[in-house]
Design brief:
The complex is a heterodimer of chains A (about 110) and B (about 350). Chain A has about 110 residues and is an alpha+beta fold. Helices cover about 60% and strands about 15% of the residues of chain A. Chain A contains 4 helices and 3 strands. Chain A has a 3-stranded antiparallel beta sheet with strand order 1-3-2. The longest helix of chain A has 25 residues, at about 75-100. Chain A starts with a helix and ends in a 7-residue tail after the last helix. Chain B has about 350 residues and is mainly α. Among the domains of chain B are: about 1-60, no CATH class; about 275-345. Classes of the chains: A alpha+beta (about 110), B mainly alpha (about 350).
């Protein structure tokens, strides 16, 4: 799959994962890595970029092991963009599926 | 291993145009990710696989490499522009007055050399490394044409990577620096000693210097001890076996070191996907036939070709894409060149 295309989808997934629950970098990498065959190198840079774009805000939380951990929390701007991305993604997927002959044709 | 990761990431980040604060922020984030992995009792290897290589991380971060802000002087630009004409004049003067067409043509090297000197000197970006191809080429030509020392004169080209490493020293610690130099030093010493003494079966042991220094990078002191002990043991045994029997038998002594490497996890064998019994059989047969044909028929020169059965079989078995000839073509080339060599068409 085209790496730019894949990166866009991962970005959407990262937004979604953090919108559901505030998480640390490690948890995001762990959650995504377990579900998608993803190049882990890309996840942290995406997290960082989305934070720079004010889609996430970070805060520190005490950890049972070692120093306090940085947690990512989605902002209103992040939520707004997530909804837009989700909408675009669904529309795109429906169009692709209709070209390929509908859901039944995709295995 | 994880400390090395942070060190490597830091040295890579130093090459980019980011603030100290941002750099520390990224490093702290990765320290946290690693701590979390350790907290979950994941192995170093698993954590490394999860976070990826420092090089790829840095390239994904989309940072901008540091640039030197100084620009070349107006006089420098003029010199670069004039250098082709100056070279041409010198070339003709040398040729006509002294009949030095050769090696006088080398003055044309002044053109790129002038540009490099003007562009790079006084700046912190590998001026000597940039010049080294020209310096080594001139020395090589002089050694070859004046003293007929084409071999081992070509070794002079090793100053290119050597100067590259020397000029990168500030990015490495002392151990990394010596380790980086060691393959070239070993190779140069091996070729020179081999060339002048004709002795290769003991001389190649110089390459163990690379392995020896590599062991110093091992994190665990227990592994370090095991590896040093078995390396010395294998080397000693090799010397004894080679002296009394042959170097081929002597090589078997290094099985001890290889086993120690696998035991200490220094030598890792990664298998993507599942190998079935047939695959393992092919691997086993290839190695066995390589050793048997080499040892019993004394055909070491070609017996290694049997090892190519492994990649060829795996490509035929697992390559799903249609253009199967592309990945197989290098093996055909090896077969072809060997045949040509045997028939005397080459050289």
């Amino acid at each position: 799959m085209n790496s730019q295309f894949k990166r866009g989808i991962i970005e959407l997934c990262v937004l979604k994962i953090i919108s559901e629950e505030e998480r640390s970098s490690f948890e995001v990498i762990e959650t995504l890595g377990a579900k998608i065959d993803v190049n882990e190198n890309t996840i942290y840079p995406i997290l960082r970029r989305l934070t720079k774009n004010n889609y996430f805000e970070t805060y520190s939380k005490a950890s049972p092991v070692g120093a306090p951990r940085k947690f990512y929390k989605i902002t209103d701007l992040g939520l707004k963009n997530l909804k837009e991305f989700e909408k675009e993604w669904k529309q795109f997927l429906e169009s692709v599926l209709s070209i390929l002959g509908g859901k039944d044709n995709v295995k | 291993m994880l400390n090395e990761f942070i060190g490597k990431l830091e040295s890579l980040l130093n090459q980019y145009d980011i603030s100290e604060q941002e750099k520390q922020d990224i490093l702290d984030d990765y320290r946290q990710i690693i701590d979390d992995g350790i907290g979950k009792e994941l192995s170093d290897m698993t954590i490394m696989e999860m976070i990826g290589s420092p090089e790829k991380i840095v390239s994904e971060l989309g940072l901008h490499q540091k640039h030197s802000s100084t620009t070349k002087s107006h006089g420098g630009e003029k010199l670069i522009a004039l250098s082709p004409f100056i070279s041409l004049i010198i070339f003709f003067v040398l040729g006509i007055t002294k009949n030095l067409w050769h090696p006088g043509w080398m003055v044309f090297l002044l053109i790129p050399v002038t540009a490099i000197i003007v562009e790079l000197f006084g700046k912190d970006n590998y001026a000597l490394t940039a010049l080294s191809p020209f310096i080594s080429f001139i020395i090589f030509m002089l050694l070859g044409s004046k003293y007929n020392l084409w071999h081992p004169g070509w070794l002079i080209f090793f100053i290119i990577p050597l100067l590259g490493i020397i000029e990168s020293k500030k990015e490495m610690d002392n151990l990394e620096f010596v380790t980086a130099l060691s393959p070239f030093i070993s190779l140069i010493a091996f070729i020179l000693i081999g060339y002048y003494t004709g002795e290769y079966k003991y001389t190649w042991l110089l390459f163990l210097l690379v392995v020896f220094l590599g062991i110093f990078h091992e994190y665990s002191s227990k592994s370090k001890l095991i590896l040093f002990t078995t390396l010395f043991l294998s080397t000693g045994l090799y010397l004894v076996l080679t002296y009394y029997y042959s170097w081929q038998i002597g090589l078997l002594a290094f099985i001890i070191f290889v086993v120690a490497g696998i035991y200490t996890n220094t030598i890792n064998i990664f298998i993507n996907g599942n190998l079935n019994k047939l695959d393992l059989f092919i691997v086993f047969m290839s190695f066995t036939s390589f050793i048997c044909v080499g040892y019993f028929l004394d055909l070491w020169e070609i017996s290694w070709l049997l090892l190519l059965l492994i990649p060829i079989t795996m490509i035929l078995k697992y390559q799903k894409a249609k253009p199967i000839l592309t990945p197989l073509s290098p093996f055909g080339f090896i077969y072809f060149t060997n045949n040509i060599y045997d028939t005397g068409l080459l050289f």
